[in-house]
Design goal:
8-stranded parallel β-sheet; alpha/beta; binds beta-D-glucopyranose
Length: about 725
């Protein structure tokens, strides 16, 4: 690091135009047709290109070495470029989609995966990744739920910290580490109707309690950048939302790093209807607190005039540029602009055996076993199965974000994984068009006939169904959470054979599974499992690993239930029954609650929970700042089945009567416990004041006295609970 004095000198030498370029991030081709970046080669040199501060989506060791070398020559002050891209769940070795990382309930594993992703990306010249996504998601129609770890603020917070630590390690100057950018600040996941880019309306009570914690956690873990969301929050687009970017982000969350706009988000302030033209968009977003403009060019085109008119100040611009130079300095780029970029290391690290092994382990930890009737799973070695369906021998196992840098050709298919483990697979209808969402086409009928033929020769059917990668991720919202109609017809046809069906689902979101679950003997939700998908799934199907994944989003019974999440507020007319009750909260045409709740997931064994015991039922705390643990809540867990298994023991707390209506329950801690058959262990959780505090608008974090309920069980529906009272000292 060269230090503040060096950076100050640099800043003094830079012209305003050069500073505006430093604040610009360039990409290949802009939507308006102007070529801003290097993607098409290095032939075009402009003042902006020569002095730009960073590039988006431009990586690969050879390319970066050359681009950085040319840039160091061309840039007026020899300021190195930052190369940024979306390393979301792996770089070349692609791990399960982020929702699938969430269902591992294993933040340590997430940290390890992020660190592997950082190593693979860093040798390809990447300095910054736009990850983690901290958006709380409650509506599975929104395509970007695949990029979130789920509907729980506490679990999301553990994961955003883990991702950040994994990417940044002990320091971004260290080899094989990159800087992390948490996004999309904030509330983007609450898009109306689950439609991508749509408006969000979130009151302060919800915003501070539910939407901010995962951002806070990434920032506390040292995250270097923040990206505002595309959405308008309570009428104000985040990109020019001064209250959000200055007061909430800088003051409340104490963020010190760089704020980078989302892709072309500053241009989008015009269609958002808050700016008359690009000049106003530049002015408002700079005044709100944006330091780097991604892909659009309003800063570069307007800052000189805006300073002249007094609409923005030189001090503001200097502050933004100083933050960018500081990040470059922290990474050691002034001393070595190439950092870890190394074509030889790319060959060594990308998709190496150790990284693949970690990815395989992650798949096995991530997939959630939703049903296993008559122990149809695990399969026995040497067993012959009919392996049917569009995803049974497909490499389309990576979601859209994984495909930014990862490649389908590197994926192991389910057939390859099973065959490797001695399962004899009779193939049926692999050639299905996964993008097709309508009813069966004549061409599908031949494939169904082929599937039925395969089924005839085997005792069990393994059926791999799901979504095409383009059906989730950005701009991948759906109005219907069912599987495409033609895939359902395939399932119906197979069901009529009467043979046991094991359904594997590949998906970027929770799906409506009622009929699928009814027609299948086993259901395994594998999300987008990534490069080692086939191997990890085979490990589970053959019993090589016992399933331990747990849902982090509720599985709805019908699309019309969206948004549906376990930690909702109670109503004056709650409906706890498993049926419709008149004049109670809910719908007249569907049971209340999800088909499978948050936290749910089966193993190959069974567990018994003793009733909850508390070390005290009356506790006291002096004031809001109390940190002393209040009591211990425990259960005895016993493996009552016949094989080893891992249980995710979950602690939920309900604040029975708060000043504000509090969620019906909230996850506060959990433990993954592995037990042998008949083995028992006591699992204890310390209940702390932090678990009981919540944000009261105008007052801040508050610890209210009164009655609380503690639940310990295997999912959010557990009724295994006990009460205690918190008194004031
Ligand atoms: C997405 C961001 C992403 C950026 C850069 C945008 O469209 O909203 O999440 O980081 O593109 O690729």
């Amino acid at each position: 690091m060269l230090g503040q004095k060096y950076r100050k000198q640099l800043l003094e030498q830079m012209t305003l135009r050069e500073k505006a370029a430093e604040m610009s991030q360039l990409w290949g081709e802009n939507p308006d047709g102007t070529l801003m970046g290097l993607r098409r080669g290095f032939q075009k040199s402009t003042h902006l290109m020569d002095n730009a501060g960073s590039f988006l989506g431009f990586n690969g060791a050879e390319l970066v070495l050359e681009a950085q070398r040319l840039h160091m020559e061309a840039s007026a002050h020899h300021i190195p470029l930052l190369f940024m891209t979306d390393v979301i769940h792996g770089y070349k070795t692609i791990f399960p989609s982020v929702l699938g990382i969430g269902t591992t309930w294993d933040p340590d594993l997430a940290e390890e995966m992020a660190s592997v992703a950082a190593a693979e990306a860093s040798v390809s010249g990447v300095h910054v990744t736009f990850s983690p996504m901290a958006d709380l998601v409650r509506d599975a129609r929104w395509g970007r739920v695949t990029e979130s770890t789920g509907e729980d603020p506490y679990l999301n917070s553990l994961f955003t910290a883990a991702f950040t630590k994994g990417y940044q390690g002990d320091g971004i100057d260290k080899p094989f580490h990159i800087a992390s950018c948490v996004k999309h600040f904030a509330g983007y996941g609450a898009a109306e109707g689950g439609r991508d880019y749509d408006s969000t309306q979130i009151g302060d009570y919800q915003f501070y309690n539910d939407y901010l914690p995962a951002f806070q956690s990434a920032i506390d873990a040292g995250c270097e950048l923040v990206m505002p969301g595309f959405n308008a929050l309570n009428g104000m687009p985040c990109t020019c939302n001064k209250n959000l970017l200055s007061d909430v982000l800088r003051k409340y969350l104490q963020f010190k790093g760089i704020v980078i706009s989302d892709c072309t988000a500053i241009w989008e302030l015009v269609p958002h209807g808050v700016c008359a033209d690009n000049a106003e968009a530049a002015e408002r977003s700079l005044n709100a607190g944006i330091d780097i403009e991604m892909v659009s060019s309003t800063f570069y085109e307007n800052l000189e005039a805006l300073v002249e008119r007094g609409d923005v100040t030189m001090e503001q611009i200097d502050e933004a540029v100083e933050r960018i130079l500081l990040l470059k300095d922290k990474m050691g780029l002034f001393e070595n602009p190439y950092k870890d970029t190394d074509p030889e290391k790319e060959k060594e690290l990308h998709l190496c055996a150790a990284h693949r092994a970690l990815a395989r382990k992650a798949v096995a930890e991530s997939a959630v076993l939703l049903k296993n009737q008559n122990q149809v799973l695990p399969l026995k070695k040497g067993e012959k199965i009919a392996l049917i369906g569009p995803l049974s021998d497909s490499r389309e196992l990576i979601d859209v974000w994984g495909l930014v840098n990862g490649e389908e050709k590197d994926c192991v298919t389910i057939r390859e994984g099973l065959s490797d483990q001695n399962i004899i697979c009779v193939p049926g209808c692999h050639q299905w068009n996964l993008r097709e969402m309508d009813a069966v086409h004549p061409s599908d009928e031949a494939l169904i006939a082929e599937a039925l033929q395969a089924a005839e020769t085997c005792d069990k059917i393994v059926l791999a169904l799901g979504e095409h990668p383009s059906m989730s991720s950005e701009a991948g919202s759906r109005s219907d959470l069912s599987l495409p109609a033609n895939q359902m017809e395939l399932l119906h046809a197979l069901y009529r054979t009467g043979k046991p069906i094991i359904t594997i689902l590949i998906s970027g979101r929770p799906l409506v599974l009622g009929e699928i679950a009814e027609h299948s003997d086993a259901v395994l939700m594998a999300w987008f499992p990534g490069t080692e998908g086939g191997n990890g799934i085979a490990d589970l199907l053959t019993g090589q690993c016992s399933p331990s994944g747990r849902l982090t989003m509720s599985m709805p019974r019908a699309t019309g239930q969206a948004p549906i999440y376990y930690n909702h507020l109670p109503t004056g007319r709650p409906n706890d029954a498993d049926k419709y009750e008149s004049f109670k909260n809910g719908y007249i045409d569907i049971y209340p609650g999800p088909l499978y709740p948050f936290g749910y997931g089966l193993t190959y064994t069974t567990f018994d929970y003793s009733p909850v015991s508390l070390s005290a039922d009356q506790v006291s705390a002096a004031d809001d700042s109390s940190e002393e643990p209040l009591l211990l809540a425990s259960i005895t867990l016993t493996n009552t089945g016949t094989c080893e298994g891992t249980e995710t023991v979950q602690l939920y707390i309900q604040d029975v009567a708060g000043t504000y209506s509090r969620p019906v329950r909230m996850l506060k801690d959990f433990r993954k416990v592995t037990l042998q058959p008949k083995e028992s262990t006591v699992v204890s959780f310390s209940v702390t004041p932090d678990m009981l505090k919540y944000y009261i608008p105008g007052k801040g974090l508050t610890l209210e006295k009164g009655l609380f309920r503690v639940f310990i069980g295997s999912d959010a529906n557990t009724t295994n609970g006990k009460e205690f009272t918190l008194n004031r000292k």
